[in-house]
Amino acid sequence: MYNEAIIFFAAAVRTSTPLLIAALGLLYGSRAGIRNIGAEGMMLIGAIVGVAGSYYTGNPWVGALLASLSGALTSLIFAFLVVTAGAYPPVCGTAINLFGLGVSTVLARVIFGMNTTMPIIASFSKINVPLLSKLPVLGPILFQQNPLVYVTIIILPMIHYVLFKTELGLKIRAVGENPKACETVGINVCSIRYGTIVYGGFMCGLAGAYVSMALLSFFTENMIAGRGFIALAVLTVGNLNPLGALGAALLFGAGEAVQYRLQVSGTGVPYQFAMMIPYAMTLLALSGIFKKPVKSSASNGIPTMKNRGD
To answer: Residue of 32, 53, 190, 253 with fewest CB within 10 Å of its CB?
Structure first.
């Protein structure tokens, strides 16, 4: 029973990591007043680019870097439409999701053909941290994971520090609350929002690479399977706070781990019901069942002042 619990919690950490990476990426943009629902498409593009990069170079780190850059480039399209052209963010995010699904499918078929079996690629494997991996309970749960889990653990406090303890973080939060006042005192709202959106795309691309190169070792069409939307739910439950997002990601990751356990445990429950668990949790979260609805930035969805002509 003890070993089963350890295995479950370790799996929850693995499955929660891509949700946390994407949520941490979307966090700054949401704080700056731009809620990006195009994370799904950016993660899909990151997933295929990461696999392709690893396939051609034999190095998963190169694949992850290329995946992150592809997400950042894709986010530039979203940023131009929303910040420069003043388009409605949810519509643009939906367009990015459709774009990501189409581009990733085409790239997969062009690079790997229509074969039913994917070629073997270099992926991220488990690394035991010396000494720490031998700790009881926490060792096998936290310190016997793949390298991207450790990267996420390291950058989480950094993201929290930047947002709440630096001048840049103050500007990001101020732009989200009152962009007109920020323009008045000389803060470039467009630059702040462009930067946060591109950073979010970079992180979403990395999250996509995690799914295709750490959770799995191949790419399949639409393999992100709603994780981009779940990352938005993680932000909502986490109250637009990095530490809150950590707790929410672990909660949703546990739900996904339960799904996998039910599918292989032979309980007799139809697998379709097991697959519903993460999405049912997302609906409950967004409906406010887990906690009171999060307060969005005051300017969420409002174009910058220059684009509105104020």
So the answer is: 190
pLDDT digits (tens, 9 = 90+) for 281-303: 777 776 765 555 455 565 565 55
Q: What is the pTM of this model?
A: 0.90
Cβ partners under 8 Å of residue 165, min gap 6: none
**Running DSSP on this structure, what letter comes out for residue 302?**
P
CATH number (domain holding residue 41) = 1.10.3470
Residue 212 domain-assigned (yes or no): yes
Task: Please answer whether residues 196 and 31 qualify as being in contact, where contact means their C-beta atoms are separated by less than 8 angstroms.
Answer: yes
CA 5 to chain centre: 26
Total structural domains in the chain?
1
Residue 244 is which amino acid?
G
Is 40 within a domain? Answer: yes
Are the C-beta atoms of residues 298 and 178 closer than 8 Å to each other?
yes
pLDDT tens per residue across span 97-152: 999 999 999 999 998 887 667 778 889 999 999 988 889 888 999 999 999 999 99
Q: Using CA atoms, how far apart are residues 39 and 60, in angstroms rounded to an integer? A: 22
Residues 6+ apart with CB under 8 A from 86: 303, 304, 307, 308
Alpha helices in 131-188 (DSSP H): 138-142, 147-165, 167-177, 179-184
- Tell me phi and psi for residue 145, to 5 degrees: -125, 180
Rounded to whole angstroms, how far apart are CA atoms 223 and 137? Answer: 31
- Beta-carbon contacts of 135 under 8 Å, excluding residues fewer than 6 positions away, are 143
- Domain range for 159: 2-305
Query: What distance lies between CA 300 and its chain's CA centroid?
Result: 20
Whether 48 and 174 have beta carbons less than 8 Å apart is answered as no
Q: Are 235 and 23 in contact (CB under 8 A)?
A: yes
Q: What is the DSSP letter of 118?
A: P
21 within a domain of the structure (yes/no): yes
Residue type, 140: P
43 neighbors 173 (Cβ within 8 angstroms): no
